[in-house]
Structures
1.
Amino acid sequence: MRKVRLTARPVRWLVVGALAGAATLLSGCAGTPGAAAVVNGDVISSEDVRVAVEQLGALYDEVNTVNVTTVLIQEPILTQVATEHGIGVSEKETVDLLNTRATQAGVDPLDEYAPSTLAVARYALTNSKMQDADDADDLSTEVATRITDADIDVNPRFGEYDPETLQLTAPSAPAWIFVPAASVAE
């Protein structure tokens, strides 16, 4: 009987092939490379989320990928409902909010904010105006219904979408990744 010995070279190619396959499976959102989420066919890119987290993180505490992704998923729907009901937010108001917050945070305002950062600020302003409206409860219900009816696909690296709460939950390590318990110094 002939013994077959695996050398480092074939094993290396097996590992590379397995990693490439895993990367392909984990790389995107429903076949949309680089997407953090896709909402009704509109892509929210990983880069959009990253830039918004970076820019907003300098201005606000507790800015994170999950919160920003959630807002970027909901913002177009919230803005559409608000606009249909005569509630609008101008670009100037949005930039003014960010510049004011920068001053309060003791940092220099940016010359230009990313569209995703502006979308998060627009969401905050629009949501505030909607809550002050006479028909705030009806508007809130309409927004929730439209978000529930939306086709939302989230890249698991950015969290898991909960249609009951309309929020993302933080991503967890896949079951196949071993996370050792913290060692206690003696």
Note: The radius of gyration is 22 Å.
2.
Amino acid sequence: MDTAHVLATDPEIGRDAYTYHGHQGRMPVVIIGGDLSDPGERRAVVAHELAHHELGHTTDHTASRFREAAMVALGAAVVAAFTASLLAGLLLAASAATAYLTGQAIHRAQELDADQVAADALDAAGMDGPGLSIAALAAAPPDPRWIRWGGWVLSGHPTLRVRMARLAR
């Protein structure tokens, strides 16, 4: 992954990071949190964010469209429940939940794909890609209990345990 990019630090986002298309959509901009001070961790996080760019996740808005559809369906469900029929409202609410969960599942899959592409890229650069990526994930704050106990299905990110196990294979 030989991607020219702009790298900036934002102390406000702690240990988080994100990427987006820069000027005219050509060069990715990677923003990392100011709490990422370990060089290996920074490499792993930047590689992960560049992997999102390489995989097209920054231009593929499928997951976002599902979540947007969920919000529209939820609004329609409320209107239908109060003006048409409760059954119509319940059906629209079920559609909203399905669309939201589908969007989150797509986003989780994108995270796992970016983890693997980042580890492979670091390996190709002569570093221990899986090791650096696992170390960066291990240094992250632990997932909240509700996420570990099944709430991950509502999240756009897989649990840290799942991500580290995937990279350890």
Note: The chain has one domain: 6-168.
3.
Amino acid sequence: MSTRYQPLDMYNTVNTEYSSPFNFDISKYCFCIYNILPSRSTIVGYTSGILFTVGWWFFFDGLIYSKYNNFENEKHVSIGIWDWLPGIISTLALIIINLINQEALNGDGDYEYSRDAKLCAFIGVSLALAALGSSLTIFIMEYVIPHLDSQAIYCGSTIVIQNVLIFVSSMVFWFGRNSEEDNIW
């Protein structure tokens, strides 16, 4: 007596009790988008990193543009340390905000340091908003009020664009990483 072995059918999910022409497994015939897309945390991380990099790129573009067009001698506009500070503070705020775990802020579980996490989050968001406000103040006081031409105003606007993009990057990374859903679209 010989036993005949048949290969297993991995895709046989059709119910044998009730068989109709509409009861079939679609994964046999097309790729599922769920398996193609990367996880949510990967998309959020790349998006946040791109926004952060583009923000700093705009600032360096304005810095190089002002040096290339020699604005220091012609229009008495120089980019000094005060123009760098909002971007540095925004970067520091991004780091502080994203070091905090959401469970620590909610007070869930055994987190005894919930009060410290809330204070740290408050300091991080305050730094981010202070940097955003200081970039707007620098732009208005140094570039808009003296009625400079559009080439010099571009250099000031890059400071604001940089800080807006870093702030958005920080919020995208914070809310994307700490959302309620776990890597499921």
Note: The first helix runs from residue 33 to 36.
